[in-house]
Amino acid sequence: MPAELRFRLLGPLELAVSTDSAETDWAAIGSTKRRTLLAVLLVRAGETVRVDQLVHELWGRRPPESAVTQVHQNIMWLRRTMGDEQGLVLVTDGHGYRLDVTEDQLDVGKFEDLTRRGLAALHDGDPESAAGLLRRGLALWRGNPLSDVPATELVAAAAAALTERWQDAWETAIDAELACGRHETVVAELTQQVEVHPLRERPWRQLMTALHRTGRQAEALATFQRVRQTWVTELGAEPSAELRRLHQQILSPAERIVPRQLPVAPGFVGRAAELSQLGGGATATVVVGGAGVGKSALALHWGALAADRFPDGQLYADLRGFDRRPPLAPSEVLARFLQALGVPVPDGEDERAAVYRTTLADREMLVVLDNARDPDHVRPLLPGPSPAEVLITSRDDMRGLVATHGVHRVALRPLRPADAAELLSGVLGPADGEFAELAALCDHLPLALRIAAANLSARPQQTVGDLVSALRGGDVLAELSVAGDPTVGLRAALDLSCACLPRQVLASLTQQEITAPSPGLDQLVALHLVVPEGPGRYTVPPLVRAYANTVTGLDF
Predict the structure, then answer these.
(1) Quick check: 270 and 232 in contact, CB under 8 A?
(2) pLDDT of res. 1
(3) Which residues form the OmpR/PhoB-type domain (predicted)?
(4) What is the DSSP string of 339-379?
(5) 157-201 pLDDT, tens per residue?
(6) Among 140, 238, 282, 302, which lies 20 to 30 A Cα-Cα from 19?
């Protein structure tokens, strides 16, 4: 069985060889010469390195007479160690050798991939994903690159380049963390970095920004004096214009931080009537609807369209009210919002809420509270009298919030058939004759439609008609799921809506229609699991009915 090879360069050089029958742990290369030889081939992976170049790397200007022979012998040893006796990976190429490995076989490759994806996410306005991707890439580092390999010309140059890439990725991760409002959490890291790299400007700017946004203005100003003294002493130069501008902004009491926290909305179509109901003068609006109906997409799309109305910025929080993760407590959300606004965060929820209301009292801002569990989840997050507007989304009907705060409510229903077909076309191309039936089988729900379209685009052998037949006669919930990602799918979404339902109430959803009075009917209405059709009459959407039929057959 061919061996699978993996290499780690981000720290001491290590090799792992695995097959279907056995797997070794990561192992170091004991001999210094062999370690250097492998390192040179790895930093030039995919390129032919001449034997005379290898000799120069291993022995410098005074190689022994047996140098070429020793190179060949060490190549043979490396091939045996890697299970590559035939030289299919470590290839003889003319008067040299070439190591053919893919990006996935190198920790460097994985680091570069995560860094690229993190930069793209940050560029697309998604700092939360960017921070996560960049931190995952940085976690691959186990120390200085190739730290146990002698610093030959090629090795030293490669290690220096890798170290610079680590620094750039780390600084970009800090930018993403700051964009997420996590100013306090990065201060210690930044303080350490400016001590290690006092002549790099970006960490100094980031440290001043983080300190200022956590209310530590005096420390931020003192930091500028430190960097100025360091640069005058070491470089004979004043800080850059950008650093001086930041210093002036911190000195100015009128300076305001303008957060832009809205994430990118998923593919959006239609909803003209609902969009017209948002931002009509109400200080708070709640968009309510069932699982997968597109509440978050509507809120984020409107927020992007209305960005010019909110010159003081946008705050965003996924409250995780219906989520596999624990709900985000109002106190934690308030802390994040205050950090994003550059305001000191007091202890205690009531104190934070008071500072939050004071801060927003004269700011034209949009606050998006996504995925709220119930009215109590958002009450502490509502500003007082203010030009700020709040947009809430929830599966709960939020009638209590309407009663206590006069919040305007917009109920979201499934897409119109034409809009559902447009959503499918956006992924699959020109309209297919069976789009209408596919949309109907998905109950015209954006989540179900996006999953169906994603599955079809990943299965070129499957036609729209094939999927329509599978949905008509098979396991609907299985078809509307994403392979390898159990958290994305209609069943996963409905699990969260129905988790609090008693078994008897859940069983009632197996019917096509429910009439009042019926146990738990008010709860089903509040969670948008049934659709009112007339006085005392409610229909159960087909996908909800399919879900109920599936789960009520399980042993709870």
Answers:
(1) no
(2) 39
(3) 5-101
(4) HHTT----SSHHHHHHHHHHHHTT---EEEEEEE-SHHHHG
(5) 999 999 999 999 999 999 999 888 888 889 999 999 999 999 899
(6) 140
Describe the strand order of the beta sheet including 408-411 as a list of residue ranges: 314-318, 366-372, 389-394, 284-288, 408-411
Q: Is the pLDDT of residue 254 over 90?
A: no
DSSP 381: G
Q: In what order do the strands lie in the sheet with 513-515?
A: 513-515, 537-539, 531-534
pLDDT in tens, 44-65: 998 999 999 999 999 988 899 9
Strands 284-288 and 389-394: parallel
Residue 442 DSSP one-character state: T
First to last CA, the chain: 45
The DSSP 8-state label assigned to residue 328 in this structure reads P
Type of residue numbered 54:
L
Instruction: Please list, in sequence order, all residues whose beta carbon lies within 8 angstroms of the beta carbon of residue 146, skipping any fewer than 6 positions away.
Output: 9, 12, 13, 39, 43, 155, 158, 159, 162
Contact 531, 289 (CB under 8 A): no
Rounded Cα distance, 29 and 39, in Å? 10
- For residue 366, the model assigns a pLDDT of 94
> What 8-state DSSP symbol labels residue 260?
B
DSSP 67-94: HHHHHHHHHHHHHHHTT-TT-SSEEEET
Averaged over 462-489, what is the pLDDT?
83
What would the mean pLDDT of 4-12 be, rounded to a whole number?
92
Of 79, 100, 104, 103, nearest to 89 by C-alpha is 100
Is the model's pLDDT at 253 over the cut of 70? no
Name the residue among 471, 417, 423, 464 with its Cα closest to residue 446: 423
Residue 376 has a pLDDT of 92
Q: What is the DSSP string of 3-48?
A: PEEEEE-SSS-EEEEE-SS-BPPPEE--SHHHHHHHHHHHHTTTSE
How far is it, in rounded angstroms, from Cα 409 to Cα 399? 9
Half-sphere exposure of 313 (CA within 13 A, CB side): 16
Q: Which amino acid is at 139?
A: A
